[in-house]
Amino acid sequence: MAIDTRESVSAEHSGHTAPPVRPTRRRPGWLGPHLGRALVGAVGGYAFGHWIGNVIGSGYINVQGSGQNDVAIVLGLSIGVVGWLAGAGMLDYPLAKIAGREPLPPAPSKSWTRYLGPALDHKVIGLQYTVVVLLFFFTGGLLAMAIRTELLNPTSHVFGPGTYISVVSEHGTIMMMMASSIVIGPLGNWLVPLMIGSRRMAFPRVESFSLWIFAAGYLVILAALPLGGFPTGWTGYAPLQTQATGGMDAYLVGFAVIGIGMICAGFNLLATIINYRAPGMTWSRVPIFVWSVLATAALLTLATPTLVAAGLFGVLDRTAQTAFFVNEHGGSSYLWENLFWFFGHPEVYIMALPGFGIVAEIFPVFTRKPLFGYRIAAAGMIGVALLSFFVWQHHIFQSGINPDMRPLFMLTTELISIPTGFIFLNTMGTLWKAKIRYEVPMLFALAMGFNFLIGGISGVFLSDVPVNVTVHGSFFVLAHFHYTIMGGLVFAFFGGLYYWLPKMTGKMMDRRLGKWHFWAMFIFFNLTFLPLFLVGLLGQPRRVFEYAQNLQTLNDVSSVSAFFLGASFLIFVFNFVKSIFLEPKPAPPNPWNSLGLEWQTPTPVPAYNFARIPVVLADPYHYGTSDGQAVADLGPRTLSLAGVVAPAAGALDAQAVTGEEGSADPRPPIA
Amino acid sequence: MNGGGETHHFRRLGVIWAVLAVAFDLVYYFAIGPHVPPGTLTSTASGAQFDFNILFLVAFPVMAAVWVYWAYALIVWRGSKSDLAEPEGGPKSRGHLGIQVGWIATTTVIVLGVFVFGTVELIVPAGAGGGEGPSPIWTPTSHEVLPIQVIGQQWQFTYRYPTFGGFESRQLMVPAGTTIAFHVTSLDVIHSFWAYQLGVKADANPSVDNVAYTTTKQPGAFTVRCGELCGLWHGAMYNFGKVVPKAQFFVWAQSTEHRSAANTKNLPPFAYTYVPDANGANGGYYPDNVDPYSKVETYGATSPGK
Ligand code: HEM
Ligand SMILES: [Cu+2]
Ligand SMILES: [Cu+2]
Fold this sequence. Notes:
The complex is a heterodimer of chains A (671) and B (306). With 671 residues, chain A is mainly α. Chain A folds into five domains: 29 residues, no CATH class; 52 residues, no CATH class; 232 residues, Cytochrome C Oxidase, Chain A (Up-down Bundle), CATH 1.20.210.10; 191 residues, Cytochrome C Oxidase, Chain A; 71 residues, no CATH class. A two-stranded parallel sheet of chain A has the order 1-2. In chain A, strands 3-4 form a two-stranded antiparallel ribbon. In chain A, helix 11 packs antiparallel against helix 13 and helix 13 packs across helix 17. Chain A is globular. With 306 residues, chain B is α+β, with helices and mostly antiparallel strands. Chain B has two domains: 94 residues, no CATH class; 132 residues, Immunoglobulin-like (Sandwich), CATH 2.60.40. In chain B, strand 6 and strand 7 form a beta hairpin. The chains are: A mainly alpha (671), B alpha+beta (306). The interface between A and B is large, with 93 and 97 residues. The site of one copper (II) ion has 5 residues of chain A, from helix 12.
């Protein structure tokens, strides 16, 4: 195995004689690829696709009679996405290559406008992802407030039934799309290369592509609302799906678009982690967050294609009148359920594992102790990832399919709680005789443990088939998955933001505001969702706008708390704006005194991350030992090469490591 | 880790945990458990209640173990501003074979126990009230099973009683002390028949006959809600039913059969599933080897033309 530790292998760099190529002309800035051009491309693409769709579909009676042409909507959305990507410059490189030109690298830029266009620096892309993810999250949050407003009263209504069900579906779908990338996108892209001692991701252009197509998914799923919304919830069950109006097309296309982004992000991270580790970064030294990203990336790459395929079937059923999901015509309504959950359950762990990784990363720093049971933590994550492919039918226990399979899926589901539980072993072991520092990131990490315990244990109740008869499809399920996703992943994500933002932005977040945010979010989160377990157990189904009179008190407690929970994010936004833009307080390079490799870099992190490729000497958890061992040698010479890492160094490119060439090279890392 | 402190921490933690777990479990068992939904109107409802309670009695000590430990750690091992010395690290705090093996063994035993318990509780009560599909493998031992068909459509449930001429009713009446087979199907999209207090839930798929069993005990009232999102008015898709004494049920059923005889003639003949063509010619689906109009399988219902 050869690890290429140099930043790039362009033709002239590696000494091959490349055939003469015509250089591309550089356009003036405003014509070049950026957000504005992407929006124009999206609108133009939509109009064009819609027109073609109408030309194709206008001859059919069912189209003429319905006043709605699904072909036009699907083509409009799909070509709109292509237009968006073209506008963002995602097609420039492949098109130039096809045309036989040598594409120019983007002009190096220090201006903030580089955040509005295609980037090749994983740190720029990471921050772009952060913004998009937060946009997703706050949009979904506003919709959640709307849901809770409707549920204030059991019988009198704020919304009509169609609007209400669209709001619920839109909230769920937006949140699930967002949660699939909330950690992987911002923190995974920003941190993984730094944590493994690399100067870049394996495929920077694919990385940029995954971001822009993720953002396109946001626009597509938003488009569902003006297209009439969709009535199926985030699960999109057929045949309701086949029957629904225009917004359903946005759901199907949107999930496929997001899915493509997830696959790209996934295999890029896989390739990076496997191939771009610095010398000495052996598998037993890889930070635990990277392990969690590795497991998640594997799930993203392997599970998501099922979703894309299922979405395609759905689109065909709705446009070309195929019958994949129509029982009466030889298809099966169970097919969608199976395909969806075959993706959907791994997706559930896509939304859990990165949170474990963050928490396991934060604990050692703020307890000043090594991570307890590192191997078990890593093994647990891989175990969860593997097992998560074998549990999907626990979502359809009562559907009538394969009744004899129920004990098996009950077993696998309960088994997966064993490796999942390892995160508690790790955190509890790390707390033993520690010196706990209650900084904001640590508070979020602790809260994640508290919430996830409730979420996880309630999951065992759900997996028990007899109990499932009562709680399936009720608010009990809803409370369960909000405890794991919102209480687990989202808490971990905000902990991670407070922890890493000083490195990412070079500014310290305000500690007092951070604590206010934390306590408000923690208390009101629990007040919102704890009553919902009871509401579900008392018989309130999900996705309804009418419920029994005697459940009003509990619902109102939940709703009012939800408004405060929503407000708690205003504290975060205020803190963010104040600390980063209004009264910036420069952050020291390593404010938490962490041993992580990412913290050993200067702030702001230079474009090429490391002046020289570091040689890793130890894992980043050497807290509490007096030998003062460094984590990595950041300016390795031949000496250290020969002495320290030689045993593990079969894999390195000596020239790059010794820095003979290009080590302090200020060129942007990707040519 | 400095040896002496170890046992002392463990002992304290153990005592706090044991007291808390036992006290709460006792309170739960006697004060809360008997009131847990879905109540005791049927065998499967009591079964669900019993299972939920057992799981809770196991789960609470587990959660308490974690919470007690965390609370203890957060208080006892908090760092102070003045004391900057770091806690002892080193290989010993990176893992402990005994603790790790013990942890895995304990969680595995709990999980396998929960699994065996859940499986027994699923199989013995004939599917525990959940939908078992068109050909159930775990069936009730009783020889007197009353079949009732549940038909979901946007957005209401109706019920057909094949043993009473196949009349269709909007009201679900069930006799007390009787084993019932619910045959759940749909005419359009997926619904879910959730008879809350009966402890029954089975999805209604078009062209599929999904069977669920329960045995009623005493008379009482119950709610039926749709448990699977089925479109616009899913939230309004509910009605109320009654478990009544057997004699009363027969009076109701027979009088309804007579009253609605004219209506029943206009209905499609009773079948397990209804597709656009009642003969199933368009791909209708029937359980293996079943003629939908055969005497035995329709429980005596008659079909036109025979
Ligand atoms: C501000 C915090 C949030 C509140 C108050 C909230 C509240 C709700 C409510 C009331 C529902 C609808 C219940 C029903 O079925 O009638 C719902 C559904 C849902 N929520 Fe949230 N939510 C929040 C955050 C999140 C987050 C962070 C996620 C995931 C990342 C999420 C994922 C979902 C999903 C998947 C559904 C199901 C939608 C469906 O039925 O298809 N929510 N939420
Ligand atoms: Cu699942
Ligand atoms: Cu429904």
